[in-house]
């Protein structure tokens, strides 16, 4: 009885199988006719790559990937050891796949290193713009080739984000929003506290702010100095800023007080005139500030006296029971004749 000949067994080249599997794409298994193993190889590689580029961008995980790589190479070699044969075509395919993968990974790692050098240089120069441009040039391939290196620089992206927000806050502060000053310096503090190594970038942003002081509006400069003086001990940024702004503060307070007096905001004017006297006693403006504080006080006293005179529900004004001072009055007492009479 005739029986058809059995199909010839697929030739097995151990070197081709090992090198094909070195691509981590299951090429060696395909050359051996093991399609299921090839699919499992690709799936396993995909899982490792996803984990490496997302939740485990660490050097120790790269070692795990290398262990997987060595395992599939050894397994391919082991499967082909049964009746081994040299198959040149298979070797060409396997070597081509391995060279393409190795070459791509090598080039991407080199490019990732070059990008990292740009980021490090930008950080040293304090340039968030240059650092952001370098980080934006990365793509998924860079993370596959060197995830730990690429992920390490994400702290610079976060630092630049916070510093951009701080810069916006400072711009608002210079436009007359006092609360924005506190928000900006909180951003500086968070960069220093959470993201060490980005101090130069913070200094560049802060210098840009300080170079715009004094502002065209003296009351804005005075408000900024007021906050900085109160928080100078809060860290290097406010301490340095307070020292820089103090050079212009006295003139700013004086000009602002003059404006406040014109607008009859006696209370604030008196407070800030007194600030000049207390903080800058040796300043040439201190004497005029003292006179301004006295003038503001005298402007406030009539309103206080009038409120005491305008008592309700009593025939006797409150001022008779709790008199309020009125420094513009002539001296009154033994040896002085009363000269000023306040009428209701």
Describe this structure in words.
This protein is mainly alpha-helical and 344 residues long. It folds into three domains: 14-152; 154-210; 213-217 and 227-311, no CATH class. It is 72% helix and 0% strand. The chain has helices spanning 14-22, 27-31, 35-53, 59-80, 88-125, 128-136, 140-152, 154-174, 178-194, 199-210, 218-230, 236-262, 266-279, 286-309, 318-321. Helix 6 (128-136) crosses helix 8. The longest helix has 38 residues, at 88-125. The model is unreliable at 338-344 (pLDDT under 50). Residues 289-299 have a biased composition (Low complexity). Residues 288-344 are annotated as: Disordered. Residues 308-319 have a biased composition (Polar residues).
Instruction: Give the biggest beta sheet.
Output: none
Range of helix content: over 70%
Can you tell me the number of structural domains? 3
**Shape descriptor:** rod-shaped
Query: Count of helices?
Result: 15
The average pLDDT score comes to 84
Class inferred from helices and paired strands:
mainly alpha
Radius of gyration: 39 Å
Order of helices and strands: HHHHHHHHHHHHHHH
Write the SSE topology.
Layout lengths: L13 H9 L4 H5 L3 H19 L5 H22 L7 H38 L2 H9 L3 H13 L1 H21 L3 H17 L4 H12 L7 H13 L5 H27 L3 H14 L6 H24 L8 H4 L23
Helix pairs in contact: 1-4, 1-5, 3-4, 3-7, 5-6, 5-7, 6-8, 8-9, 8-10, 11-12, 12-13, 13-14
Keywords: Membrane, Transmembrane, Transmembrane helix
Compose a concise summary of this entry.
Keywords: Membrane, Transmembrane, Transmembrane helix. By secondary structure, this protein is mostly helical.
């Amino acid at each position: 009885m005739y029986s058809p000949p059995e199909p010839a067994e697929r030739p097995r080249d151990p070197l081709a199988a090992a090198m094909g599997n070195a691509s981590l794409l299951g090429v060696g298994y395909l050359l051996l006719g093991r399609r299921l193993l090839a699919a499992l190889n690709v799936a396993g590689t995909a899982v490792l790559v996803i984990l490496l580029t997302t939740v485990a961008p660490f050097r120790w995980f790269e070692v795990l990937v290398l262990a997987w790589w060595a395992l599939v190479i050894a397994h391919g070699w082991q499967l082909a050891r049964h009746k081994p044969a040299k198959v040149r075509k298979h070797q060409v395919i396997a070597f081509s796949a391995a060279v393409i993968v190795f070459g791509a990974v090598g080039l991407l790692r080199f490019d990732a290193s070059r990008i990292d050098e740009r980021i490090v240089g930008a950080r040293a120069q304090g340039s968030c713009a240059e650092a952001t441009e370098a980080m934006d040039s990365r793509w998924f391939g860079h993370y596959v080739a060197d995830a730990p290196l690429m992920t390490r620089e994400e702290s610079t992206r976060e630092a630049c984000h916070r510093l951009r927000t701080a810069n916006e806050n400072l711009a608002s502060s210079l436009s007359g929003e006092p609360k924005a000053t506190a928000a900006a310096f909180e951003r500086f503090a968070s960069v220093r506290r959470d993201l060490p190594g980005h101090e130069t970038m913070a200094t560049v942003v802060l210098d840009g702010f300080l170079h715009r002081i004094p502002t065209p509006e003296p009351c804005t400069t005075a408000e900024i100095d007021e906050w900085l003086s109160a928080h100078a001990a809060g860290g290097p940024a406010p301490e340095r800023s307070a020292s820089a702004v103090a050079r212009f503060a006295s003139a700013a307070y004086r000009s602002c007080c003059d404006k406040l007096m014109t607008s009859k905001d006696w209370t604030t004017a008196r407070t800030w005139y007194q600030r000049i006297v207390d903080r800058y006693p040796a300043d040439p403006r201190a004497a005029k500030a003292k006179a301004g504080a006295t003038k503001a006080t005298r402007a406030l006293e009539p309103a206080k006296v009038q409120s005491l005179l305008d008592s309700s529900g009593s025939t006797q004004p409150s001022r008779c029971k709790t008199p309020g001072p009125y420094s513009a009055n002539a001296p009154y007492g033994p040896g002085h004749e009363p000269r000023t009479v306040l009428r209701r």
